[in-house]
Records
---
Amino acid sequence: MKDSGRLPALAAWAGISAAGIVVAFLGGRWGAPEAGNPLPPPAEEGSDKVPARPVEEHRGPRASRGYGPEAPAPRSPQEPAGDPSRGETGEPAPRPLDLEPALLAARRAAAEPEDERALEVVHRAAAEWTERVLDDPEALASTLARFDTTRDAAELGFLAAVLGRVADPEVEEAAVRIARGDAHPSRRAAAFDVLDALDTPAAIDAALETLAREPDAAVRLAALRSIPDPTGASWDEAAPVADRLGEILAHDSDAEARRRAAVLLARWHRGDDEFRPVLEALSHDPDPAVRAGAAYACEVAGRRDESVTAALVQALRSPSEDNLVRENAWRALGSLGPLPPEAHEAYEAFRAAREGEGGSDDG
């Protein structure tokens, strides 16, 4: 699943996992605040408050996945980005093939997260090496070879960010192989981040296998992120995805995994039975971030069933419920109009209360 949102602060490089470093490169990914979450959400400008909705729930186009907000989508090595520098014969001027300086820049940026110059250098190195990989099969081969062996968190983040920009079958095959069978959790997580950036259906089987047996929460989260939207999927193809997401939502020990599973299930479910875990989470999950994600999932699913509106009204009318849960329930109800009388009454009462407290009427 592809989160949209804001680019995390690159200062978060210090002491985080390979998956966290990939996040810093790819941008736009953060979860509900929790112990050990390497990238907490940025506050809104001019405020120290938590954003009104998780950034995953931000409306708008899919977040870019490169080295800044305007980065293009992954492209094939066969697609030229423009004319390279030419020598006297008109042929591309040869460049020395050396990945080490770029990896050194990545390690320095990870070791010195407050050094803005180091961060600028590593971003420039990543952009330049990505272009090199897209233009030069030998550069791609050396990048894949290093990705296949390194365990260094900074290197994994750098290499995954580069490879996630290369729409090449060899990259996809390598990422699937590592995600499925590598012995090291940080490498499995980095491989899933490559698959996430590629936005490929090839990630689905590997993700489902991992979610069924993976003990490491960071790897499970990376696997969940890699599951694409069900565009073009058949009814039969959706069944195992929905089943596994329902299991994660009902039983996973990690709150962020449950929250992500709720939103994914809103997109992959096929009927009432498969959507029921979302309503159960909205009513009973002990973590408010999961309940907020379940309320948002009701908005994503767009189901006008009585069971959905009743669960949203219950959350909205509970004075002890978390504010973000109630806010998301209100927005979800608004998106499901026209509403039956009881639901409409609850919606209008909450809107009046918001306006009285100075909230914006943007539901």
---
Amino acid sequence: MDFRATPGQNAGMRHTSPLRLAVGLIACAVCLIITRAAETPAAPALTLRVMTFNLRFASLQPPHAWPERRPIMKHLVEREAPDVIGTQEGVYYQLRDLAADLPVYDWIGLGREGGSRGEFMAVFYRRDRFEPVAYDHFWLSDTPEVIASKSWGNQIPRMATWVRFRERATGREFIFWNTHLDHQSEPARQQAAALIRDRIAAGDQTVPLLLVGDFNCFGGASVAYTRLTQEAGLTDTWFAAPARENEDFNSFQNYEPPKHHRERIDWILARRPAAVERAAVVTYEENGQTPSDHFPVTATVRF
């Protein structure tokens, strides 16, 4: 019997070419990568309840003396239960009082005159949920690293404080900025907003970021607002929220009956939030006494 293969049999028994083998292996590898990527769990959502609150400095003289306002402020914060708070105007002993009243929070800050002197842009945060991994302060001037420096027409120094936080449970990080722009000089507000815009742009772009404060100009209708939203790429959480509580209230009421002109000088801005669940102007008071001459503003933001 002749076992030699015919020409047709030889053709069917040829080995697979190296090129076809390589293509097949690459296709298998791509499928494996895609499958594993699909199986890898996404990073957990980071949901933050944020508050910005101008505390009004702690005068001991009535009316609206700090001893009268202190317990009301404690009750307000406990009721709202924010995860992180950007405060403005607090002085050192006032901030220590607030920390004593709210033991679930820790805080970071520096007086605008240096050390414990002057008003702070103090940041309060829930100590059980977050740990600070970095922080710094700078002044809103031509010489930002010089303590108490001022430029552009403002009569008092203005500053910003930022903190980078890590969520203890997940390891996720975010950066929280807090500031207070000048109440008199429009050029100072514009220049300060440009400085903050540029410093945010120079920082880490890979993590969520929040910027809060008393900006002393109206959200949606000022040069500083344009620089910090359109130019800096930040979202105003107030307008992003599907539900806004006390939408027509002014955020600054000066211890007077609330005004309903939709004039909001206290903002919460966020970089690329996945969603803003709600926002509010918090009009809490007890027996006609508000805790400050500003209403705090809150937002629940998800990244």
---
Amino acid sequence: MKVTRKTLLTFALTIVILAFGINWFLNYGDWQNTRRLALSLAPQYLALLVMVAIINVLLYPLPFKITTKALSYLRAFVIRQSAFVIANTLPAGGSIGVAVIYVFMRSFGISPVSSTATISINSVFNVMMTLGMPMLSLVLLAVAGEEPGRLFVPAVIASVLLIVLISGFILILRSEFFGAKIENLFAWFMKLFRSSRRISFTKFRESTFEILKEKWPLVLSAHLGIQFSMFSTLPIVLFALDQEIGFFEILVSFAFARLVTLVPLTPGGIGTTDGLLLALLISFGAALPAATASVLIWRSIYYLPQVLLGLVSVIYWQVKINK
């Protein structure tokens, strides 16, 4: 791969942003206070947090297992956790993580078409969840009798992007003509940047239509389960600390903070997502110490187990392949 000045600049910028993110996470996160508050939680809340951490880990491989017929749960687990540790710890890890998923799937005997279909379907559904959660959370907040306030406009923008994404996705899947047109438009656009890269939307349609026709409810349920499992740490901690903030206000804070991950300035959104989440929780009435503790506990429960299991999964794969 040719290393250009632009590539080096992007890499350097990512390193700087990541350094600030880790600095915030470790130094400005008030870990001493978080540890004190975490140890003060009643045993039933601590048990719930352990349960959430386990559910997070168990749910994460499910979308790949559902969309890949020949893939066992164990292999889906190894693939997802390995990609997680790379995508959430390395600069530009998201792109590397996708490549790792493809390599791992091929090493497990999954065909190129099936591998591409699984990666594409779950990437689209992941973005759909991220764009759809803000409006869903605001609707639930309004039903509960609360005003959406200034968050209504960004929720509408996210919803419009979601509608465009879903509409384009459906058109590509249902219309061979539309898929070919999009493929040609993409090729023309890439030529403007003097790139010969092409993407086959027609091939994408053929490899994904049958899977989604039969399994889209399961895929949607799995992705929703992952989102709400990831979210559930926050209300458990905040309610355990007797904070005057509603369930749907916490959900709104989580949903809007997750939008930052669509522009991955740092791996896993470390620092950026956490900072916005903290600010939103405080704006809804959570006290600073409790809000900080909830964000850091949320990050620890969602992030650390999967990073550690990801490292184990990479080693397991390496040993398994070299046998």
